[in-house]
Amino acid sequence: MKNLLLVLIGGGFGSVARYLLSYFFTKNNATHFPWATFTANLLGCLLIGLLFGYIQKNNLQNETLKLLLITGYCGGFTTFSTFSIENIQFIQNQNYYLAILYTLTSIFMGFLAVILGFKIFN
């Protein structure tokens, strides 16, 4: 029960942070590119890399920290389902260039963000 509560709390905070990020970008962005989802996924990748690197460097076996921050917060903050539907909408609108660009840059930059976060502590 404790583990479920940790994931719930972390996920709740991550979801609220994601909503606020989306609200900011929707209010301040007139382009068709989904900057909020892109940014949330890259920040989530960087954060999970930082957390993983920190935990590994300090040899922490703290399951509470992992459940709260990695599974909960990062899981609630990142948005693969939103990323997927945005790509479907690009394809439906025959905007294949943006679909390919968004997919490739999200994957490539996501990997780089995880590596960067991990390397900071190693």
From TrEMBL:
<dbReference type="InterPro" id="IPR003691">
    <property type="entry name" value="FluC"/>
</dbReference>
<protein>
    <recommendedName>
        <fullName>Fluoride-specific ion channel FluC</fullName>
    </recommendedName>
</protein>
<comment type="function">
    <text>Fluoride-specific ion channel. Important for reducing fluoride concentration in the cell, thus reducing its toxicity.</text>
</comment>
<dbReference type="Pfam" id="PF02537">
    <property type="entry name" value="CRCB"/>
</dbReference>
<keyword id="KW-0406">Ion transport</keyword>
<keyword id="KW-1133">Transmembrane helix</keyword>
<keyword id="KW-0407">Ion channel</keyword>
<keyword id="KW-0915">Sodium</keyword>
<keyword id="KW-0813">Transport</keyword>
<keyword id="KW-1003">Cell membrane</keyword>
<keyword id="KW-0997">Cell inner membrane</keyword>
<feature type="binding site">
    <location>
        <position position="78"/>
    </location>
    <ligand>
        <name>Na(+)</name>
    </ligand>
</feature>
<keyword id="KW-0479">Metal-binding</keyword>
<keyword id="KW-0472">Membrane</keyword>
<feature type="transmembrane region" description="Helical">
    <location>
        <begin position="97"/>
        <end position="118"/>
    </location>
</feature>
<comment type="similarity">
    <text>Belongs to the fluoride channel Fluc/FEX (TC 1.A.43) family.</text>
</comment>
<keyword id="KW-0812">Transmembrane</keyword>
<feature type="transmembrane region" description="Helical">
    <location>
        <begin position="33"/>
        <end position="55"/>
    </location>
</feature>
<feature type="transmembrane region" description="Helical">
    <location>
        <begin position="67"/>
        <end position="85"/>
    </location>
</feature>
<feature type="binding site">
    <location>
        <position position="75"/>
    </location>
    <ligand>
        <name>Na(+)</name>
    </ligand>
</feature>
